[in-house]
Design a protein that fits this description.
By secondary structure, the chain is of the alpha/beta class. The chain is built from ten helices and twelve strands. The protein has one domain: P-loop containing nucleotide triphosphate hydrolases (Rossmann fold, 3-Layer(aba) Sandwich). The strands form three sheets. The protein has a six-stranded mixed sheet, with helices on both faces. A four-stranded antiparallel sheet has the order 2-1-4-5, with helices on one face.
Length: 277
């Protein structure tokens, strides 16, 4: 039986002076799951990832992570705080937001150094992740001068170096060319299948959903949870997808009858990844 990693209990979160971005949401995440947070832009997907990462904290409700309450206080004290930070990695939508060192090697070494690992162990782990992500040739390059796909892999390497058990992914393929998208999806699949890493991905791209997750939580534009089910069921629930503005209906008339055909809100990914049929 899989262990429960996160238990989210009726959480609500608002930015200062604004209406709730996440409203009365409850769900649980088990070890090894591939879960998607699905919703239109502005529905609260990214905010929910930030809450799971302990970057924000709900005004009501609570989050339990690894059998500990996730609060500002618990994150500030060992052993839970350091353990949580090494166990949960956050891959931002914009890789530039998390790349700040002068070389790729220094970028990957940053977290192990903060955790005061031994030098030999750091060197070995850097080599391991450089080889895993096929970026050893970028070791001495400046991250800011890399391509979008290379930056994404360096950002991922900076997380994987400390052996996380959970990855939080915010629109991970956004802005990537088709080849880089495919490579990243293959890496994520390998991490889940071979290393057992739990993947929680925020996305609005339905064409990528079958490649990213087996289960999906659907957020509405009212910031509430509308559905929790397997990806196949979610993708074929046209009424649900219409109601949360993930697809739109194109209407045309045949005589006195109006027909509506759903159209997916798709991106450049549509030419490389199709929706499950």
């Amino acid at each position: 039986m899989m262990n429960k990693i996160f238990d989210i209990n009726n959480i609500t979160f608002s930015y200062p002076g604004e209406q709730p971005s996440v409203k009365e949401i409850s769900f649980a995440v088990k070890q090894g799951e591939r879960l998607a947070l699905l919703g239109a832009n502005g529905s609260g997907k990214s905010t929910l990832l930030h809450l799971l990462d302990g970057l924000y904290f709900p005004q009501s409700g609570d989050i339990t992570a690894f059998d500990n309450k996730l609060t500002e206080d618990t994150l500030e004290h060992p052993p839970f705080g350091p353990q949580f930070r090494s166990s949960v990695g956050f891959l931002f939508q914009n890789s530039d937001a998390q790349l700040f060192c002068s070389t790729v090697e220094e970028e990957i070494a940053f977290a192990p150094l903060q955790l005061q690992w031994k030098k030999a162990e750091i060197v070995q782990r850097i080599d391991d992740v450089l080889n895993l992500l096929e970026i050893a040739h970028l070791r001495d390059r400046t991250p800011q001068n890399l391509s979008g796909g290379e930056k994404k892999r360096v950002a991922l390497a900076s997380l994987l170096v400390v052996n996380p058990s959970v990855l939080l992914l915010d629109e991970p393929t956004a802005g990537l060319d088709p080849r880089s998208q495919s490579m990243l999806l293959e890496i994520l699949e390998q991490l889940n299948e071979q290393a057992g890493i739990t993947l929680i991905t925020a996305t609005h791209d339905l064409t990528l959903l079958p490649h990213l997750a087996d289960r999906a939580l659907v957020l509405g534009e009212d910031h509430c949870l509308k559905a929790d089910g397997n990806t196949h069921e979610i993708l074929h629930n046209t009424d649900l997808l219409l109601s949360v503005n993930l697809i739109h209906a194109h209407a045309h008339r045949h005589g006195d009858t109006i027909h509506r055909h759903p159209h997916y809100h798709i991106t450049e990914h549509e030419h490389t990844h199709g929706i499950d049929s």
